[in-house]
Amino acid sequence: MLEYRNVHKSFDAGAGPLPVIKDFTMTIREGEFIVLLGPSGCGKSTLLRITAGLEPTSMGEVLIGGRPPDLRRRHRLGFVFQEPALMPWRDLVSNVTLGLEIRGVPKAERERQAGELLGLLGLKGFERYYPHQVSGGMKHRVAIARAYIVDPIILLMDEPFVALDAQTRESLQRDLQDLWQRRKKTVIFVTHNLEEAILIGTRIVVLSSRPATVLLDCKVELPMPRDPVSREFVALRQELRGLLV
Amino acid sequence: MAKMREAEPVVEIGEMTAAVSRERVQKLSRDRRRVIGFNSLSLLLFVLLWEGSSRLLHSVFFPGPLVVSRTFVVLLVEGDIQGYTLPYHAYVSLYRVLLGFGAACLTAIPLGIILGLWRPVYFGTRVVSEPLRFIPPLAWIPMAILFFSGLGRYVFLIWVGVFFPLFILTMNGVSTASPTFVDVARVLGASRSFIALRIIIPNALPQIVGAMRAVMSPAWMCIVAAEMVAAELVGLGQLINNYATLLRMDIVIVGMISIGILGLLLNEAFMAVERTLFRYRQEVKV
Ligand SMILES: Nc1ncnc2c1ncn2[C@@H]1O[C@H](COP(=O)(O)OP(=O)(O)OP(=O)(O)O)[C@@H](O)[C@H]1O
Ligand SMILES: [Mg+2]
Asked: How far apart are CA A236 and CA B14, in angstroms?
């Protein structure tokens, strides 16, 4: 279980404190697929960073299974950052296997798993390429593989599919759905794409502009796979659009 | 031309990749030819300018390229008055430079890495390190003469001149690691030592090797200055100094050019190492 209790966050960036998150309270059960929506600059990335323990809260607390996030305890956390941040001196395989390397998994096993994942993400044949030799969308896919490979219990994804074409995006959405259904991971997924939000989320949270407060928190009960032209789908999309503009 | 375009789509994939690599090889050799061409041209221009100005000046203290190349050959084959040949002078200086440079690398790079990872220590010691950094290496010569002799003196003076720039450049390289790289590793549960050894140091390595290349020039400055004040017979600085007092400017110029050429060769060697080591970086524009 993932709990946020009255989380406040403000940054001190020169010209006085900048309040970013205001009194955010939420309980996320295991296996929920949360989609986080909100205007640019409202604090979505910051919320993910706080969840991962990369950023302290200013007030309030985050509890993962009853305890505050602690990077040293290696919760099986997967974080797909907004930028791919691949290390230029590592080829694609070694970028993907980073988490396994940290856990001391033997090299042959690491490479086997990475090869499998890269194949799944449509990167077969590019294993030994370096980041500067692949396209922007390919980099994003590698970053996703790097998060998947540690088989995370909580998966934080910050606009992971933005740089992809419609087809790849759909196939990756399906893979993520599969993964989530088979392994019952808890996912927090940030996106600006309303269709995507309704297609994959079990719960949609809309944040206001800065400082972020919860504008809407609703369960999406539509059966999977969802039909983007069904009446309920369209109605929900209209509602979300109304909130966001 | 138009015909070739039409033919392209039926080319097999294997042939296509072969064509791509052939094209790349051709482009590379074309670029290389162009670079060599331009460099030959600028060398020629330089020599002509030199010859022209020496004729214009018409002074024994400013010999032209013809006189100097004759001296060059004499020094190469027969040696100077004492019988030391130019390659021997060069070898002795190079040996000293590399020893001092090695000593500086062994001290400045680890220290730069440690303080780059641990900036508070650097900021806490700046009141000592900054003034030291600003003392020109030449100001250390009296100390060097009093406390060192022979090879140790040269090594010390080169070390003094190279240590600080190398240290500062290394430290800056270390602290420019992208914070997101570190975050990626932290989320995956990396320890501090993993982050230092597998993220921060590899990230800084291109800058560190670049810094090693950059400090070769202060290293040569120091060796020449050090050799000029010493009472020895060999070394390029010594050659320059001894023959300056005899007003043999042709020999002085040969010494100067030798230093320049050695510097060029060392620089090229370093760049070759950088190119193979850091292939992953986008090609540096030639
Ligand atoms: N380290 C920091 N120091 C100061 N201000 C920060 C810092 N990180 C984020 N902010 C500020 O916090 C606000 C929220 O940033 P955040 O990255 O969380 O936005 P976001 O919702 O992810 O936006 P986007 O959709 O554009 O990615 C921004 O106004 C940003 O300027
Ligand atoms: Mg963001």
From this structure: 51
